[in-house]
Write a structure and sequence with these properties.
By secondary structure, the protein is of the alpha/beta class. It has 3 helices and 7 strands, in the order H-E-E-H-E-E-E-E-H-E.
Length: about 150
């Protein structure tokens, strides 16, 4: 394990670490997500000041069905890190809009497509589907023809 990750484990409560090629991924609990992202952004040794994307993942049939993935970029150190949070269908994730302002639309997209709720989001409403749309189309159990027949 890299010295950077060993130092990061002293600050951020990391549940798991994975390195694939030059990509670093950490898994944190939803309770420590805000603290972890704030440390990665503000710490002088990391400076991951850019949130490049937020994505949702559906693992149908697993205990932790959903995963929210945050991709961060440090321009100062020219490095990337991926932060993952796993949850079940009834668990919500804290919104990170207060830390990264550009998280607003990505969290709305993950809500719209997967139905993952973000606590304290300023305007959590549909962004890609119509307001009358039923369900969340990226879920693996969503029917191919939808819920409404025309």
């Amino acid at each position: 394990m890299l010295k950077v990750v060993q130092d990061l484990k002293k600050i951020v409560p990391i549940l798991a670490y994975q390195r694939f090629m030059d990509e670093h991924s950490i898994v944190v609990s939803k309770d420590s997500l805000i603290f972890s992202l704030q440390c990665l952004k503000s710490h002088i040794g990391y400076q991951y000041t850019l949130l490049t994307s937020i994505a949702g993942v559906d693992f149908l049939g697993k205990d932790y069905r959903f995963c929210v993935v945050y991709d961060l970029l440090s321009l100062t150190f020219n490095s990337r890190i991926r932060v993952k949070v796993f949850m079940n269908e009834i668990t919500s994730v804290p919104s990170v809009v207060d830390i990264f302002i550009n998280a607003n639309w990505w969290e709305r997209e993950v809500w719209d497509m997967y139905g993952i709720y973000f606590d304290n989001h300023p305007d959590l409403c549909r962004i890609l589907t119509d307001y009358g749309f039923e369900g969340h189309p990226m879920r693996k159990d969503f029917p191919l023809s939808g819920y409404v027949e025309f």
